[in-house]
Design goal:
heterodimer; B: 519 residues; mainly alpha; two-stranded antiparallel ribbon; two-stranded antiparallel sheet; 18 helices; 68% helix
Chain lengths: 377, 519
Amino acid sequence: MIFDYETLKLIWLLLVGALLIGFAITGGFDLGVAASLFLVGKTDKERQLALTSIGPTWEGNQVWFITAGGAIFAAFPLMYAAAFSGFYIALLLILVSLILRPPGLDYRSKLSSPIWRTTWDICLFLSGFIPALLFGVAFGNLFLGIGFHYDNALMPHPIEGFFALVNPYTLLLGLVSLSIILVHGALFLQLKTSNSLNKRAVKIAYISGILFVICFSTAWYWTIFKIEGFQIIAIPNINESLTPLSKEVTKGLQFWLNNYNQHPLGYIAPLLSISGVLAALVFSAFNYPGIALFCNSITLSALIITAGFTLFPFILPSSTAPNHSLTIWDASSSKLTLTWMFWATLIFLPIVLSYTTWVFRVMRGKVLEKDLLKSPY
Amino acid sequence: MINETLVNLSRLQFALTALYHFLFVPLTLGLSFVLAIMESVYVMTGKVIYKDMTRFWGKLFAINFVMGVATGITLEFQFGTNWAYYSHYVGDIFGVPLAIEGLMAFFLESTFVGLFFFGWDRLSKVQHLAVTWLVALGSNLSALWILIANAWMQNPVGAEFNYETMRMELSDLAAVFFNPVAQVKFVHTVAAGYVTGTVFVLGISSYYLLKKRDIAFARRSFAVAAGFGLASILSVLVLGDESGYTIGEVQKTKLAAIEGMWETEPPPAAFTVFGIPNDTTQSTEFALKIPYVLGLIATRSIDIPILGMKDIIKQNEEKIRKGIAAFSLLQQLRQGEESADTKNQFEAVKDSLGYGLLLKKYTPNVIDANEEQIHQAALDTIPKSWPVFWGFRIMVGAGALMLLLFLAAFYYNAKRNVENKRWLLKFALYSIPLPWIASECGWIVAEYGRQPWAIGEILPTFLGVSSISSYQVSLSLASLVILYTGLLVVELYLMFKYAKQGPSTLGTGRYYHEGNASS
């Protein structure tokens, strides 16, 4: 083994982060286009064009989400178990909306009945809107901590309730993720469409971009100064295999600033989150949607890095039993599993990236009305 | 105490969502290869009709494929939402094949499937063919990894219990990957998928032939399906996974339940064709038996005995007693009494820990179990027999019918006389539901037959559930049932509509409903 256990745990946090970033960037196209379906497409044909722009690539994009889920299962099984049962109703909502998406995209244009198409359009809108909002709400709950504790057999006991998860703070974070995904989808549409669709997309990007900057700044202030962060006081050797029952954790205001105080370079991440989207808006205004998308992808990445860096080493703080909070040190798989999974990822992720890039290149260019006639849908 | 309502609801939800998912998976597995074969013929011969075939069956493939993708998301996340303790207890091993499935297979399949549909004008012939093969390869690799995960539930190899982290941990990855149960399961399942794909194509082509339209298109489709289908059904039956039932204790118990075999018989055991297994009297009534056959099929020998359920129960009582000792030692270790002596004693009996956990249903402390409770727990170690017994027989019956179908289809196709055999065409058309019935029954046998274990001999199913309320699970179950039923109606409607219209939906101007019936 070339890495010690501690390093492997850290690497796996980074790899899960990378998968989430992959999903935000690629799946963000599809979520964004779906969430802005009615804003951008005023007629049936326009909506069909918008959906055709994501038609060839959404399936692959969504695998980032599935794989991130699988990777959390394999690398941080305690996180997978506690978070997924803790966010039960929220996940059910995400699940139902994500289930509607594949049939929605494939079936929508198969019949010409307006009722049929409008129904699917509403489903598709929800399938973009709900996850985009709830991903932010979920992250909001990570900063607040969710209610759960472990018993001696290491069974996680979440405190019930979806409505405990939704409050002004978490909704604000929901708006952060929704607005940036709307920007992303709109820029993608600017790249892939022309005429009125294209013009409306530019407008949506602009308004959502400004909204994002406001929400993100407010969320930053709120997270640091208004809510209590978590901090480890004592933990056994993190290079060993640990359970969440063996450390001491305390809560306090501004604790979410700890990592920035220790490593001021960390401020780059939140700063990039803002500057990336501002640059994207400028390039969008001058009609360089490709470069704008690149800049916005930097924002999406920086945003996820910001969240991870702020929380580090926590991945699921517990508001009711802070000592039982999950950190990367005590929620991970065994060393052997992390090692094997590291090699598997090292081999397959570059392969995935290369053929994904190839597919996007093959499908590059604008979607035109004449393409709809030949559409397989 | 165990919340039985919660356990039952969680099991029901898992069973329904898994069975529902598997309405779509086998067709994806099989049809993707049928498409690849058709397109290969197109690329090799340059005959446009084979391109039309690929595109038309591809349309039906798409209608089915998206449902498979949509319903798969539920399964990936359900382990965490509803089976949190299961995820904690075995995530170290079980998560690995799931994650690799995503990285290696699902990405491949999903990334290229978009190009399959949208890439016809953007790729060269050979490039597009490669894309189609990659979709088929991806979907089949996907099945491989999922079945490795599933096989580990049936026969958990390559893992050790760690008392400090209170979970199973990986000890030998190769053992998990090359689990013999995984190998037979993989061959059996993908071959069953090919059968599904080919029965589907064969049946719908027969419909066109019966209606005497798009004859050339239908005959060629029929030919591809007949050839590939015969090979597939033979693989399913000959390489069928009955041989896998002799590996591991859980599989052996399942075999006894499948056969409704209560007593251990002198080898080679007889095969019970029909009967009514009765769990209360522990006997199979009205049994019709064929001597020797079971022993030959299951053990591939004449002298290896197959244990009956009564003996299995008796053996398991002993294991439960050992399990109590293991549980007691585990408690000492968890309380900090970690002397080398305790550790050694625990090592010696920890393989039986799972049997001790079975008692949690009757007494949360396990160690204070009385004789009656031990006996009850031992009775629990065999699944209820009749669902497994009948599930298996329906599956095999459907398989036998499909074998007949493909033999006839292959024979008359070779004699170029298919159009005139109306009985065969009708047989093929009405056989379309058979592979689905067989697949669903197969899963019931495999998973119901695994009870009471979530992970064979390691974790009882009832312990795996999340600590959530029955109300939450009722809500999700109801939502999913309504959503899934609605989607299934829509899917079937579209499937029937497109299948009935046939290749005219391609808009090439060459087919029946486009006013040119000459083909």
